[in-house]
Write a structure and sequence with these properties.
single chain, alpha/beta, Rossmann fold, 4-stranded mixed sheet, 37 helices, 15 strands
């Protein structure tokens, strides 16, 4: 570096330091008035605007209100004004209608109750003149109301007209009452927020509204981007009429600052000629000058010399420009160069180009084609098996030598009316024919011994035991001896064979049962033959249902599928029965009544769901059965729910006999609690005996959608500190889990705020960073077990819901052994559980980054929109209609309110609204059923017609269309999902 150049740099440094001191001094003085930086031009405009607004003051405004969200307060005041106006209008309408009625009737007529019921009776029961002519009830109603007229004159039409007017008054009075409550609530809230009277007159409200509107204008000027431009105290003084700032001096400071900024800009431009990579920020420049020693200056000019050589000799213009344009450590420059060099070489290789040119659409087309072909293999397998079985079937005309006369034996038995061969004898006589007719036979182990004699030649290629943990070895021997191969399937963590059914007696107390666990064929063979674990759990639609078992019994070995609901406890519910009393022989009656109430609620509100009840003791099972019988006697209309011929009928079982069952909803009744003397005995029957943990595991893993625990005990009630009984601890932990969620389990903490950021690859991290920079809230590695979703996007307005699962072809993708797992099953299962799914391919993310980002954002926005428009329903399945459907308790005598017309539905062909009103009388009963079920009911009960003809259907469908247009009923396809 020349001496002259060094001198120029030193002089420049001195000028920058001097002007920097002046710059920061002016900035400090301005910031003493303005917490946020404002340019001189903005400042002048600000002062003028603030002055104009200040002198335009009107209404009442308190400076303390500036800290409130004034726009929200104004909105509340507008709502109050609107509600007051609506009340006045309704009051005038009621008064007008009353005046019309009083021209005909005395005031006593206005006091009639149940007027809506009277309207229905008059309009539907006595629409026919003949019915009115011969009905004693109608005459009584007519004469009673006629006596209330002023001139004692009345006809049918006049009566209906005035009764309907009275019904209108009742309806509007109810609306007015609701409006009054709502108005009082709003006024009370406004009074609390502003500390003003709750009973403001209209004029006072108007003045208050003007003042707050003016205050909002002041705030809009002085408050930007969540920052006050001047101190809040200063603004409050302005609102109170006290001016504490000399705005003339502030403007003078701004002018000086503007001149200083011009000088600084000129000096920084000179500085950039010598130091290109230093940010042109005054603070950064002064810091750089302070740290720069003479030897560092020498290094800088050495850098410039080397750079010029690289540009001239090696033509690395593009590379150097890009490296200098990004923040990169010096030690990484060589690595960046090597990477770029290698990529340039690869781009000249044809095979590499074919990979990089793959688009997302091309990849997904290949994946979709694979899915289609993969699914077709299942259909082909079914066809092959079917054809193979058909080929095995014997020809009834086959030679007797081929079957040994077995066909004739079977034909003969089929023609018999009596004296049939015993099953065992028949099987012995068909050793060749039966395997051809029934190559797969399902029997219990004991049935095998019963129907297959020990000296027969029966032998199976394969014997499979299901639920082997409940099969005693001595019962299994006969089946095993007849197989060439054996598969034993079972769960050692679930129920073993027990002496329960052998040792129970009526007088034995429930909490003192002596139930012995016996050895099973699963236990015996597990030490002799190879084991294979089935680790994927599919039953539970919400993984919270299996979390307790996975943690406590399976050591987190089970792979479950994440739910799209952040509330990991949403499908496990807990009801504490505080006053429940446990009597060993008689169970817990109070808790049983609560369980029965829940059963009723589910039967009415979720008739399409299957339901089961599991009690922790025999006596509790019996008392619940008694209570349910009483319920069924009281509510005959619910018999269809308890129909035992359904595919999954309602059941009430205890711990010992529920294994193998599953239902959509399971109610667990713990039963145990304090005795009548208020003492809690720490004896919970087989639950805390050896094998108790197996019983609990079976009970808590029966539900597919919801588990509702009803208990007179809470986990905190059980003292386990001095107990060595591990099953008691597990029982306590279960109660804690049911009440508080997975956070109660040691090692689990899945609250939303605890979601960290974990990545399997840099690729995933890059996608995550992009989404968070775009403002989306994203969780990584979503799930409670070994299987995790790479990323999930949270709905911006519904914090508890994921709207999209994003999976990358990273480590988790490649860890799947087969393409079926990677590209079909994983996505299908997630979508069946409510997820929307999106796959990002690393090749397209790298080589077509901009378009891939656009596709990703479009997919997220579409998912958010669809979720919002569906009201929270998933696109794949209607999981629940609880919030959407208005449920009404069903009256067992509901049909008594229906009229009867012997003429048939054609009498309503030209009066569809009247037919619609009849349908609405019982429509609540058919929520969740198809509309044709309701048509048949009306057709039979109202018109006495068993057959629903096409002509009848056409009229009914017009009525349903009318109800839909009036928004009184809502259909999804053919199913009634809501009645309003």
């Amino acid at each position: 570096m020349s001496f002259t150049k060094g001198t120029e740099i030193s002089n420049l440094f001195d000028e920058l330091k001097l002007e920097g001191d002046n710059f920061f001094d002016l900035e400090y003085k301005i910031l003493s008035v303005f917490p946020n930086k404002v340019s001189s031009m903005t400042l002048k405009e600000f002062v003028e605007k603030l002055h104009r607004t200040t002198i335009a003051r009107e209404g009442k405004m308190n400076s303390e209100w500036l800290e409130l969200d004034l726009s929200t307060v104004l909105a509340k005041m507008n709502e109050i004004e609107s509600l007051r106006m609506e009340k006045r209008v309704i009051a005038e309408e009621i008064s007008s209608t009353e005046s019309q009625i009083k021209t005909v009737f005395e005031d006593e007529f206005l006091e009639i109750e149940e007027v809506e019921k009277l309207v229905k009776i008059l309009k539907f029961e006595y629409k026919s003149f003949l019915k009115r002519l011969f009905s004693t009830e109608y005459k009584e109603i007519f004469q009673k109301n006629k006596r209330l007229t002023k001139e004692l004159k009345l006809n049918y039409e006049g009566l209906i007209s005035n009764v309907e007017k009275l019904a209108t008054i009742h309806s509007k009075s109810r609306i007015m009452t609701e409006q009054t409550k709502k108005l009082e609530s709003y006024e009370q809230r406004l009074s609390k927020i502003l500390n003003v009277s709750q009973n403001l007159s209209d004029e006072e409200l108007t003045q208050l509204k003007k003042g707050i509107s003016w205050g909002e204008s002041i705030k809009n000027i002085c408050y930007e981007n969540n920052i006050w431009l001047i101190s809040l105290t200063t603004i409050q003084n302005i609102v109170e009429g006290v001016n504490v700032v000399d705005w003339t001096k502030v403007v003078e400071l701004a002018d000086k600052k503007e001149k200083s900024d011009g000088k600084i800009t000129e000096l920084l431009a000179k500085f950039s000629n010598y130091f290109e990579n230093v940010p042109l920020n005054m603070q950064e420049v002064l810091k750089y000058i302070q740290e720069l020693e003479f030897n560092t200056k020498e290094e800088f000019f050495d850098y410039k010399r080397i750079k010029e050589e690289l540009l001239k000799e090696y033509r690395l213009d593009d590379f150097i420009e890009k490296v200098e344009g990004i923040e990169i450590q010096a030690k990484n420059v060589e690595l960046v160069f090597l990477k770029r060099f290698i990529l340039l070489v690869l781009e000249n290789i044809p095979e590499y180009n074919s990979i990089t040119n793959l688009s997302t659409k091309a990849i997904m087309d290949k994946v979709d084609n694979f899915k289609k072909e993969d699914k077709s293999t299942f259909d082909l397998a079914r066809i092959r098996i079917f054809n193979a079985l058909v080929d095995r079937l014997p020809n009834t005309n086959e030679n007797v030598k081929t079957t040994g006369g077995e066909i004739e034996i079977l034909k003969k038995e089929l023609t018999k009316k009596a004296r049939l061969l015993p099953t065992r004898k028949l099987i012995e006589n068909l050793p060749t024919l039966l395997p051809r007719l029934k190559p797969c036979i399902m029997m219990s182990p004991l049935t095998v011994s019963t129907y297959f004699s020990s000296n027969s030649d029966w032998e199976f290629d394969l014997v499979i035991f299901d639920e082997a943990s409940q099969v005693r070895p001595e019962f299994a021997v006969a089946a095993i001896s007849r197989g060439k191969q054996v598969i034993v399937a079972g769960d050692s963590k679930q129920m073993p064979p027990t002496s329960f059914f052998n040792s129970s007696s009526e007088n034995e107390e429930d909490d003192e049962e002596d139930i012995q666990d016996l050895e099973s064929i699963l236990d015996e063979l597990s030490v002799k033959i190879p084991e294979t674990y089935l680790n994927w759990h599919y039953r539970s639609k919400d993984e919270s249902l299996i979390t307790f078992s996975n943690k406590k019994f399976y050591n987190d070995r089970l792979f479950t599928f994440p739910t799209d609901n952040l509330d990991v406890h949403s499908n496990v519910r807990f009801t504490h029965v505080e006053n429940g009393v446990w009597e060993s022989k008689y169970g817990n009656t109070i808790e049983a009544e609560k369980v029965t109430q829940l059963i009723y609620d589910f039967a009415v509100n979720y008739p399409e769901k299957s339901l089961g009840v599991v009690a922790f003791g025999k006596s509790q099972t019996e008392i619940i059965e008694d209570k349910v019988l009483e319920l069924r006697e009281q509510h005959k209309e619910l018999e269809s729910f308890f129909d035992e011929n359904k595919s999954e009928p309602f059941f009430i079982k205890n711990l010992e006999n529920v294994q193998g069952d599953e239902r959509d909803i399971i109610i667990l009744s713990v039963g145990y609690g304090k005795d009548p003397q208020g003492k809690l005995r720490m004896n919970f029957g087989p639950l805390i005996q050896s094998g108790g943990e197996r019983r609990l595991n079976v009970a808590v893993s029966r539900s597919r959608e919801t588990m509702h625990v009803v208990s007179s005990l809470r986990g905190i009630d059980l003292s386990v500190d001095k107990s060595n009984n591990e099953n008691l601890v597990v029982f306590r932990d279960f109660l804690e889990f049911a009440e508080k969620g997975v956070g109660a389990l040691i090692g689990y903490n899945l609250l939303e705020e605890d979601h960290g950021t974990e990545f399997d690859s840099d690729f995933e991290e890059n996608v995550y960073d992009y989404l968070t920079q775009r403002g989306y809230k994203v969780h990584t590695q979503v799930g409670a077990s070994g299987y995790r979703i790479d990323m999930a996007v949270i709905h911006p307005n519904i914090p508890g819901r994921y709207v999209l699962a994003i999976e990358c072809d990273g480590a988790a993708y490649h860890s799947s052994r087969t393409a079926r797992d990677r590209d079909r099953l994983r996505q299908e299962i997630l979508e069946s559980k409510g997820w929307s799914f999106y796959r990002i391919w690393s090749t397209t993310w790298i080589h077509d980054n901009q378009n891939e980002k656009i596709r990703l954002i479009d997919t997220i926005e579409k998912a958010i929109q669809e979720y919002s428009e569906s009201g929270g329903e998933t696109l794949k399945d209607r999981e629940t209609l609880k919030e959407k459907i208005k449920f009404v308790p069903v009256d067992m005598a509901v049909d008594n309110v229906l009229p009867f017309y012997s003429e048939g539905v054609y009498v309503f062909k030209d009066d569809i609204p009247a037919l619609s009103d009849i349908i609405m009388l019982v429509a609540n009963k058919y929520v969740g059923y198809e509309m044709h079920d309701l048509m048949r009911h009306i057709n039979k009960k109202v018109f006495g017609k068993e057959r629903l003809t096409q002509g009848y259907k056409d009229i009914y469908e017009k009525a349903f269309l009318y109800l839909q247009k009036k928004k009184r009923i809502e259909l999804k396809g053919e199913v009634i999902i809501a009645v309003y």
